[in-house]
Design goal:
The chain is α/β, with parallel strands linked by helices and about 475 residues long. The protein is built from 15 helices and 27 strands. The chain is globular. The N and C termini lie far apart (about 50 Å).
Length: about 475
Amino acid sequence: MIGSLIAALQPDDDQAAIIGRRGVATRGDIERLLSGYAAALHAEGLTAGDTVGLAIRPGARSLAVLLAAYHLGLRIAVLDPTAGPDVLLARLRLAEPRLVLADAAAQAVAGWAAPLARRARLALPELSALAPVATIGRRLPGTAPVLAPLPGPRPAGYDGDGDAVIVFTSGTTSRPRAVVHTRASLEAGMRTVHDLVAPRPGRPVLGGTFFVLVPSLAGGAPVALSTRSLSKLRPQATYLTPPQLRAELAAGTRFTGRVYSGSAPVSATLLNRVRRAGADQAFGVYALTEVFPAAVVEATAKNAHTGGGDLAGDLLPGVRARIDDAGQVLLAGPNAADRYLGEQPHEWIETGDIGRLAGSRLVLGGRAKDMILRGAENIYPGLYEPSLHVPGVELAVLVGVPADDGDERVVAVVQPSAGTSPEQVRAALREPLSRMGSARPDAVVVADVPLAGRSRKPDRAAATRLAAAS
């Protein structure tokens, strides 16, 4: 699909491709940037298999650079400049890029530019200690020289398989962890998203990730990057994380078409609110960096689920799942990552999620590492948290708070919806709490649930500290 999109782009095509805050980039604009950056990267001596670090905000240039790198058979290491200098340097050392491409904003992120300049000179115009650096887009004082698109024909493309992208997920400064997708697994993931969303030509799709951009553009649909004009654009499909959805709902945004949400737990309550806000359908997408996407569930099916746990939905075509002896969900399929960087290829991906299978339907029971031990019983929060998402509850998590005797207390941290009082929340929770049996919390703390990370998932460590102090 990526190769087909690259081949289909024409320099004189004036159809809208990307709708951003500063205007519209046409498909012709994308093609000219793609060919120019492919020529510039080729002129730098980069060849198939070489690694390029990338820290560029979503937009026409970042898409063009990604497509240009794919066209040449390069491997992109996605860098997050907000991760901090120590983490970023450790990731650079592991990926060993021949060139780092960053826009001026990424190089000047407050809090890390100065330390990084002292340690690796990444933010300086000259070569850093780890790799040469080039600026994509407008250069600002103190940033690296610009890598400008070059005129002329697009260099010949690479037609084989091999590594396509490295995405860092976790780990430490001494042992970073990075997911490696091949060209084949990346293509399979794009095809799965395309078939799931089925974008139609002309009407916009809203979402800023590469997994939204490529399938949408391949289907002839322009992509809007900002939610500021969501109601005006009336997109046929929207992809937002749960925190983004909650923010839009709080702002009174009206939705259209189909809405997809993932990267963090998606409750039936949230999907129902999206439906009430105008969406034709609202889907929860179960996806990992290693397997994107894996399963999907629509609000109607999620509402009808009564078997306990969190219904992730039906496995998507080609995705296989099994449960290991510890109850952990393992996934495999053509869209599964090949390996972790520096490790051997694997057939099955360990998700870290506890779950069960009913045919091709996957039900999750929470993260294995989130297990709470109270008395002699193992309590998996994910089995019970969905029942806490009643009307008036925005978000809820169960955490274990260490007790004096080495045991753990179970505490529910519950965030009210706007306009709902703590008393109303406690009243609404009486019935679901009474049905939790031996997993019933020892205490309920009504407060905002702490969030963390780019996807703004619940921060359980911070929630535990909050529960312990309450």
